[in-house]
UniProtKB/TrEMBL annotation:
Pfam families linked: Abhydrolase_1
InterPro entries hit by this protein: AB_hydrolase_1, AB_hydrolase_fold, AB_hydrolase_sf, PcaD/CatD
A GO molecular-function descriptor: 3-oxoadipate enol-lactonase activity
Lineage: Bacteria, Bacillati, Actinomycetota, Actinomycetes, Pseudonocardiales
UniProt-listed GO biological process terms: beta-ketoadipate pathway
SUPFAM superfamilies: alpha/beta-Hydrolases
Domain called AB hydrolase-1: residue spans: 15-239
The name this protein goes by in its record: 3-oxoadipate enol-lactonase
Length: 256
């Protein structure tokens, strides 16, 4: 599927693809664009299937579908090889790419994500809630996982914007990606990832805490390094943007 994308930064810069969480759109990466483009990278961010301005698929999708969308995006842009930074569902997509499309991925950053998350019935129930209770109810719960209480209290306007982002996501698009998460399990294939990999976990992330999620990825991907960011819940790239940007830039710019 052809995804909605925005490319910013120098046209001849190394390409960094940014891929986000279920219930988000490409604006969740706003805090990363300035620092990355200023450092000379060409930043490509996109809306996953059924999110933002990317069409809703007519059937539940799989992680392979989401990874295939990134390959199509790279082909469309004429990009042979890119760095990939993914958070949550975006990180799952990044792991799939590292496993199945190693020639297309340079350096990999896997942020607040998991090699297997919950079980299929849990995600089918989330999809059912999206369809029957509506996306505002999904957004009410998401915002609690995405940000700490302290951050929401200090940034009520921004919290409202992120709530709106999820509430505006089509229920069928959200449900399609619930299926992709519920049906994915990449744990046994992680040792196949050859890309230099940075794993970022957030200390206060209730959805994909370091233990059992980021730690598992870092243990299984050869040579991977884990960084745990304090003072952030699931959307650590927003809540601790400066820290995450420093880690990402350090990893992408590391001496080869
Ligand atoms: O449930 C959430 O909102 C957290 C999450 C799990 C996978 C993902 O993309 O976001």
């Amino acid at each position: 599927m052809r995804v909605n994308q925005v490319a910013e930064g120098p046209a001849d810069g190394e390409v960094v693809v940014l891929s986000g969480s279920i219930g988000s759109n490409l604006s969740m990466w706003d805090p990363q664009v300035g620092p990355l483009t200023s450092a000379g990278y060409r930043v490509v961010r996109y809306d996953p299937r059924g999110h933002g301005r990317t069409p809703v698929p007519d059937a539940p999708c799989t992680l392979a579908d989401l990874g295939g969308d990134v390959v199509e995006l790279l082909d469309t842009l004429g990009v042979e090889r890119a760095h990939f930074v993914g958070l949550s569902l975006g990180g799952m997509t990044g792991m799939w790419l590292g496993i199945h499309e190693p020639d297309r991925i340079d350096r990999l950053v896997l942020c607040c994500t998991s090699p297997r998350l919950g079980d299929p019935p849990m995600w089918e129930e989330r999809a059912r809630q999206a369809r029957t209770q509506g996306m505002a109810a999904i957004a009410d719960a998401s915002i609690q996982r995405w940000f700490t209480d302290e951050w929401r209290a200090r940034h009520p306007e921004l919290a409202r914007e992120y709530h709106h982002m999820t509430a505006a996501t089509p229920a069928e698009g959200y449900a399609a990606c619930c299926h992709a998460i519920g049906s994915m399990d990449v744990l046994d294939d992680l040792p196949k990832i050859a890309a230099p990999t940075l794993v970022i976990s957030a200390a206060d992330d209730p959805a994909t805490p370091p233990a059992g999620h980021g730690e598992r990825i870092a243990e299984a991907v050869p040579g991977a390094r884990l960084e745990v960011v304090p003072g952030a819940a699931h959307l650590a790239n927003v809540e601790q943007a400066a820290h995450v940007n420093e880690l990402v830039l350090g990893h992408l710019g590391a001496v080869r």
